[in-house]
Amino acid sequence: MNRDGVPPVSDGAGERPVRADARRNRMRILEAAEAVFAEQGASASTEAVAARAGVAIGTVFRHFPTKPELLQAVVMNLLDRLTTEVDELVNEPEALSALFEFCLRVMAVGVRNRAVFERLAETGIRVHVGDALTRLRPVVDVLLERTQRAGAVREDLQPAELIALLAAIGQEAMTAGWSEQFRHRALTVLFEGIQLTTESRGQTRVASSSRTEFDNRIERLTSPIITIRRGGYGDGCR
Prior knowledge:
This protein is mainly α. Helices cover 63% and strands 3% of the residues. Strands 1-2 form a two-stranded antiparallel sheet. Strand 1 and strand 2 form a beta hairpin. The radius of gyration is 22 Å and the shape is elongated. The termini are far apart.
């Protein structure tokens, strides 16, 4: 046994279980770190992460020798999980709703883990929403193509343009800590702008089989006045 209570790696048949244990420990640490940082901020101690994960502090340091390395690993784990989640949206039957949900999830991940991104920025590593969206480009391509085939959004909208628009909104949402309601409202305004319109009986109307559900989304929004607080970094819309 080593000082962390883990058997040393051996040759032959005994090697596979140790590797499996190491993978499980690593995932437990990352999940614990995400939860601890969300609750206490990214300045929370490594000891708190170890306690939440149920492992020795030495086990944490063996996987992640420094705090920045742990933070970076948390971010990569977040992106991996987000990729898996949004991949499932391409099979949703309602094209416009799936694209809207994709945008909401991207923004939510940024805001929910804002403390981690801020701490990483202090070490010189900045997380940009646009970079994450570029990584998700294949999903964006499919979701946008589906909505265009359904006649839900304008045909001349390019994936790169949608990514740029969402990146701008998502970056500000993360930086300012927008509330869930404000994020929803901002995306609603964006989607109103990218929807396909046609001239019908002398009036401009939205030509989309998905319009009814989108209208229902808007109607479900509550309507209290949004207060915008101006001040130092971190003040935003609540």
